[in-house]
Design goal:
The complex is a heterodimer of chains A (about 500) and B (about 350). Chain A has about 500 residues and is of the alpha/beta class. Chain A contains 15 helices and 23 strands. In chain A, the strands form eight sheets. Chain A has an eight-stranded parallel β-barrel, surrounded by five helices. In chain A, strands 6-22-23 form a three-stranded mixed β-sheet, with helices on one face. In chain A, strands 1-4 form a two-stranded antiparallel sheet. The radius of gyration of chain A is 24 Å and the shape is globular. The relative contact order of chain B is 0.18. Classes of the chains: A alpha/beta (about 500), B alpha+beta (about 350). The structure holds iron/sulfur cluster (2 copies).
Chain lengths: ~500, ~350
């Protein structure tokens, strides 16, 4: 007996009076929704992912897309999604894959935090007329300064600073590897960060030659698979990031299907053409914090102690203790990726159920590092679901030095968060390696959009700071006075160390 | 708002409190009758090497016996008495001001460069955070803070400020906006040798607070000025930075200016700013800080609060208003306004 099919998700229709049969929808849809038969455009709505490519390319605004109302018997527990997943697994016996971030309806803590502004007693600062300092240095800082007295009695600074990354704005683009995203997507991001004085991550896929001109704005990643890692790669990075885990899928490795491993990806990753690139869940040389410390120091040694080393972990239940361990491992920064972080592909059950929200993770880490008196000695970078400049400002007030954005930067390249990245057919040329699709990104135009986004958030952040009477980013960092919780329960307020509104 | 004034006599000649009382009262526009206070250095020549611990007690039974107990544990009370006060018609007496002259047992702390000061700091933090009804508001050697909720003149008369003679005086007239007016919240704030008066609001308070707290201080007075005293103690006493460098850490130059400096200076300022980023103070402020070595006044980096400096012979005055300085010293010369963030330092001429 067959299970039959599950109902389609979206319904596409074309206003035939408007349509001029230019066929752009047919050409643009990589999922095969449209085809032509006898001079007529036929639609297979079942294939639609709501990527919006056709709609945005239609010159006549002739296409409409609707989420198809669910025709199951409504039930609060056995939702349509729950039932469909069971039907699909009953049919295939496999793990369900998903792309992009957590799609569950958890409350968003960012939206229950409000920022402060000055009134009367304390003037707001106008960023158009007064200097506003967003410059951020990421890396190890000394606990205190030491001086020596020269023979002449002059006081000389004895403390030497460790290498730090200098950012013009506390906003970077997170690690998305070549393989997971296309070269044109990476190039667009790279040009954008070079333009805006900040950094991006290479992801675990190595660094393609065409990114070399932007290497001084790139952070190279060493993940468990060691793909693309050699001394040349390490030396090209402005900083090195060891990836232990990622917010979208804590506790598991990565999987790049062989189909996406074209010749260019194979060279860059240093793996055979067409082979699956499977990075293991753990690094097989790290089974303790001491092992991690060793890797940190080996990477420093290999690069002559000239580069800051970051360690990235997923936000999990005891993230604070782990981060404190990392801080003491001679790592220069700890990156915390919350459970709303995006991904090319993850088992849906992980993406939607494992980890904790970034807001709570930052606050917990900030508290732990403060309690241990080492907060300023190490940088904290937050990522995973940062959607706008307010999220950025709130992350910093909760204790981050800077944030990584991922999905937001892809949206600036066209991504419509359709969640089908793992299929390699991204119609926007982002999460795909198909040359015809990749070519849809003009890297100059793409980079301009991403640079505009970074610029716009930076302006908004300055305005938010100015309104709160703050003119340097150091003074927003970990500043709970400038945050209040709205409709958050007492337990959460305590974790965030934030007072409720009105207090 | 708030009015502040400080004076140092660089020859260590001692001045009585009558003229600073007049100067502070002149700035009544800047206050609201909810807090005023004075600190003077050099007022206890009879106990030149004892820590003068000033405490507000709610009563002399429970809280005082607890404080006595902690003090006995860590040192010897050389002398103690109620601070003499004189009833004022409009000043509501909320606490009993008490003073101890005290010598800590330094051998109790090993591995410290400054065992006596570490003990006193510990005592202040412990008493203020664990003994209800007791608040240590002054803890330095040969100096004393006198403050209450009231107008400057009343507070001065309440303690009869003109009876004290010191070579440094700071005074403060409070217009509380962010916290209620109460005795402990009045300025000056003091810890050990550091006393602070402040006009403004520190918008970086949350950051500064967690920085000092992560270094073992406890903020208990629910006001932003308290952290300034702790920051000076941390950077000055414990990290050994000279006062100009503390000011540079608290109100650093802008990056654009630092970028233009010669390499060596640039490096120093960059290192200083990175190391002490969480100590950077934001928001509108004018501050005068005193120690037994001198005074330093400075404003925030864009000068959102006024600060005026005047000199006359061995005397250096720093205040919110020129008129206040002129009341203290009608002969005052070379009045000027320092640049934003620029420290004005007055030290003793040996
Ligand atoms: S893109 Fe629009 S106008 Fe062109 S064929 Fe498709 S529906 Fe018609
Ligand atoms: S990157 Fe492409 S496939 Fe992935 S969600 Fe965005 S539009 Fe869809």
């Amino acid at each position: 007996m067959s299970l039959g099919s599950v109902p389609l998700k979206y319904k596409i229709s074309i206003d035939r009076d408007q349509c001029m049969k230019c066929m752009r929808c047919v050409d643009n849809c990589s999922y095969g929704v449209y085809r032509i038969e006898d001079d007529k455009i036929l639609i297979d709505s079942r294939r639609c992912t709501a990527c919006h490519r056709c709609i945005s390319m239609c010159p006549r605004d002739a296409i409409s897309l609707q989420e198809k109302p669910v025709d199951y018997r409504s039930h609060p527990l056995w939702t349509a999604q729950a039932r469909e997943d069971i039907i699909n697994q009953a049919r295939t016996g496999k793990i369900i894959l998903a792309g992009m971030g957590n799609a569950m309806d958890y409350p968003i803590i960012f939206d229950r935090l409000v920022l402060d502004a000055c009134q009367v007693t304390n003037p707001s600062i106008d960023p158009l007329r007064e200097p506003m300092e967003l410059r951020t240095y990421l890396g190890k800082k000394p606990a205190k300064l030491e001086f020596t007295k020269s023979d002449k009695g002059d006081i000389e600074l004895k403390t030497e600073l460790s290498p730090n990354l200098k950012l013009d704005t506390p906003l970077m683009i997170g690690h998305m590897s070549y393989g997971a995203i296309s070269l044109n997507a990476q190039l667009s991001l790279a040009k954008a960060v070079a333009k805006t004085g900040t950094f991006m991550g290479t992801g675990e896929g190595g660094m393609h030659e065409s990114l070399y001109p932007y290497q001084s704005n790139m952070i190279v990643q060493v993940a468990s698979g060691r793909f693309g890692v050699d001394i040349n790669y390490l030396e090209r990075g402005a900083a090195i990031e060891i990836k232990i885990g990622q917010g979208a899928k804590p506790g598991i490795g990565g999987h790049l299907p062989g189909e996406k491993v074209c010749s260019d990806v194979s060279c860059t990753r240093m793996i055979p053409l067409g082979s699956d690139a499977i990075s293991p869940a753990p690094h097989h040389d790290i089974y303790s914090i001491e092992d991690l410390a060793q890797l940190v120091r080996s990477l420093k040694e290999a690069t002559e102690w000239k580069k800051p080393i970051f360690v990235k972990i997923a936000a999990v239940h005891n993230v604070a203790a782990i981060a404190a361990g990392i801080a003491r491992s001679s790592a220069d920064a700890v990156v915390i990726d919350g459970f709303r972080g995006g991904t090319g592909a993850a088992p849906k059950v992980f993406r939607d159920n494992v980890g904790i929200p970034i807001e709570a993770a930052i606050a917990a880490v900030d508290k732990k590092l403060n309690d241990q008196g080492i907060r300023n000695e190490v940088s904290v970078i937050a990522s995973g679901g940062i959607r706008n400049s307010a999220d950025l400002a709130k992350s910093i007030a909760l204790g981050a030095d800077a944030v990584y954005i991922g999905t937001a930067s892809l949206i600036a390249l066209g991504c419509r968060v359709c969640g089908n990245c793992y299929r390699g057919l991204c119609p926007w040329g982002i999460a795909t390696q198909q040359p015809d699709l990749v070519n849809r990104i003009d890297t100059d135009v793409g980079s301009q959009h991403v640079a505009n986004l970074i610029h716009a958030w930076t302006l908004e952040l300055s305005e938010l700071m100015g309104a709160a009477g703050i003119n340097s980013i150091e003074s927003l960092r970990g500043n709970r006075e400038r945050l209040r919780g709205y409709m958050l329960d007492e337990g959460m307020l305590k974790v965030l160390n934030v007072d409720p509104v009105g207090a | 708002m708030c009015g502040i004034i400080g004076v140092i006599d660089r020859t260590k000649a001692r001045m009585d409190g009558s003229s600073i009382k007049k100067a502070l009262s002149l700035m009544n526009e800047r206050g609201s009758g909810e807090g005023a206070g004075y600190v003077a250095y050099g007022i206890y020549p009879d106990y030149p090497d004892c820590y003068a611990i000033h405490v507000f007690f709610d009563n002399l039974v429970e809280p005082k016996s607890k404080v006595d107990e902690v003090l006995h544990k860590w040192g010897r009370i050389v002398h103690q008495e109620e601070i003499p006060t004189y009833e004022q018609p409009c000043l509501k007496r909320e606490h009993i001001p008490w003073r101890y002259f005290y010598r800590p047992y330094t051998e109790f702390i090993v591995g410290s460069n400054n065992p006596a000061e570490d003990i006193i700091k510990h005592l202040v933090m412990t008493v203020n955070s664990t003994i209800p009804g007791a608040l240590i508001f002054s803890s330095g050697i040969n100096l004393g803070v006198f403050k209450a909720a009231g107008w400057p003149e009343e507070v001065a008369d309440f303690y009869r400020i003109e009876d004290y003679k010191g070579y440094i005086w700071l005074a403060h007239n409070r217009y509380p906006t962010n916290t209620p007016g109460w005795w402990g919240g009045a300025h000056p704030f003091n810890l050990l040798d550091w006393a602070v008066v402040h006009n403004g609001e520190i918008t970086s308070y949350g950051t500064n607070r967690s920085y000092v707290e992560s270094n073992g201080y406890k903020c208990t007075m629910s006001t932003d000025t308290e952290v300034v005293a702790y920051l000076f103690d941390l950077l000055g006493r414990r990290h050994g930075l000279p006062s100009e460098m503390i000011v540079e850490a608290l109100a650093p130059q802008f990056w654009d200016e630092i970028d233009l400096l010669p390499e060596k200076e640039q490096k120093l300022k960059r290192t200083l700013r990175l190391t002490y980023g969480p100590a950077l103070m934001n928001g509108p402020f004018a501050i005068v800080v005193a120690t037994s070595k001198g005074i330093v006044g400075f404003t925030d980096r864009i000068k959102l609060r006024p600060l005026v400096v005047g000199e006359n012979g061995s005397r250096l005055y720093i205040s919110s208003e020129e008129a206040a300085i002129r009341v203290m010293d009608p002969e005052v010369k070379s009045i000027y306004m320092p640049r934003a963030g620029e420290p004005v330092v007055g030290r003793f001429s040996q």
